[in-house]
Specification:
With about 350 residues, this protein is α/β, with parallel strands linked by helices. About 40% of the residues lie in helices and about 15% in strands. Helix 11 packs parallel to helix 12. The protein starts with a helix and ends with a helix. The structure holds ligand G3I.
Length: about 350
């Protein structure tokens, strides 16, 4: 008796949470592109998170679970357990899974780049790269439909097409590591789509670097299927003009485009960590909500116009309760960049993107 009451309560709970969400995001966008969300595997165990995700999304991205430091924390010791739980969730719920990411300067264990206490040789590093790509992609073949093969390899500064200073990949191998990574990935799982993923791709300087990088890599034989525009944006940028120019530019290379990590910060974009300044932390006022709603409305309107080249749009997080932007660029500064508020309720920006 008590057991059946419990079941009944659970059913009522999920009916309540879904009936208050009248419009499903992914269903609204069915004719345009699949809509996804980045998750941490532990969060999927929470009932409210689970029902919100199932109701609104058709694609998942691992926020951290498939990065090199998680998959191969020690040389040759592969741990697929966290990624596997996302695969199981995606399969149970008929969702597709984007792989993120194979080769990155960040969240890659230090052992990758060292050998007998010194810096590893280029030849040995390529072996490690190949081994990591082979093991990871073969493990997930048929379960992960697309990989961000190389992440954030373009430079931010004037004159630096490539990320040089803080990339061990670049320092040891030069720009050729990008081509190698794509070639290894193609061999490891010929059926997976292979993407290059980066941020600030709407800012003219960074965009020109990413464009050059992709042109060079393609000319050198890298089998690149598409580009991921991370879309860590703000209520102040990008402008509609810059966004449209970016989509035109990258589609001119014959690449598919995905929006891979969308969130819209209520602060201006900054890329360097710093301390909180007095009085700068914002409350989520109606004025900010309005600006954010206008920005979300604009970017989704543009995405819909480019549905012929955009093959997926993923939000980098579910609700404002958990976002990487609470710790970056300023640790401890609350941000409100997503479509659902800290309690999981739809925000005005959600309504503006389903009400077109
Ligand atoms: O796993 C450790 C845990 O053991 C430890 O107790 C805890 C204490 O801080 O840290 C945990 O690691 C954190 C990790 O997320 C997993 O939660 C790191 O500190 C934290 O820095 C890390 O942040 C991630 C960030 O990438 C790191 O580069 C964010 O969650 C993740 O959203 C973010 O995602 C990146 C994309 O991969 C690429 N594009 C930019 C995007 C935002 O930075």
């Amino acid at each position: 008796m008590r057991y059946s009451m419990l079941i009944l309560n659970l059913i009522l709970l999920s009916v309540n949470s879904i009936s208050s969400q009248s419009v499903s995001l992914y269903k609204t966008y069915q004719k345009y592109f699949p809509i996804g969300v980045a998750v941490m595997s532990d969060a999927l165990k929470e009932h409210a998170t689970d029902s919100l995700i199932k109701f609104h999304f058709k694609s998942l991205s691992p926020e951290n679970e498939m990065k090199p430091e998680v998959i191969q924390p020690q040389m040759g010791k592969f741990d697929f357990s966290k990624g596997d739980s996302l695969v199981a969730y995606a399969q149970r719920n008929d969702m597709r899974l984007r792989g993120h990411c194979l080769v990155w300067h960040n969240q890659t264990p230090k052992w990758f780049f060292s050998d007998n206490g010194g810096v590893i040789s280029k030849a040995k590093l390529y072996k490690r790269m190949k081994n990591h790509i082979n093991n990871t992609m073969r493990h997930y073949a048929g379960k992960v439909y697309l990989w961000d093969v190389v992440n954030e390899a373009a430079g931010d500064e004037e004159g630096a097409v490539y990320r040089e200073k803080n990339s061990s990949w670049y320092k040891i191998c030069g720009k050729d590591y990008i081509v190698k990574a794509f070639q290894y990935a193609k061999k490891a799982d010929p059926n997976a789509l292979l993407f290059y993923n980066d941020y600030d791709t709407e800012q003219p300087l960074k965009r020109s670097h990413v464009f050059q990088l992709l042109k060079d890599a393609k000319a050198a034989g890298a089998p690149i299927d598409g580009i991921g525009l991370q879309a860590h944006w703000s209520i102040y940028e990008p402008s509609e003009k810059n966004l449209r120019e970016t989509l035109d530019l990258f589609s001119s290379l014959g690449l598919k485009i995905q929006i891979t990590e969308l969130d819209i910060s209520v602060y201006p974009i900054e890329n360097i960590r710093r301390k909180l300044r007095d009085g700068e932390e914002l409350q989520y006022t109606p004025e900010l909500a309005q600006k954010q709603q206008e920005q979300y409305e604009m970017v989704f309107r543009v995405f819909r116009d480019y549905k012929h080249v955009i093959t997926g749009v993923t939000l980098w997080g579910l609700t404002d309760k958990n976002t990487w932007l609470d710790t970056f660029p300023v640790a401890g500064r609350k941000n409100y960049p997503l479509l659902f508020d800290v309690d999981g309720n739809e925000k005005a920006c959600f309504k503006s993107i389903v009400g077109f």
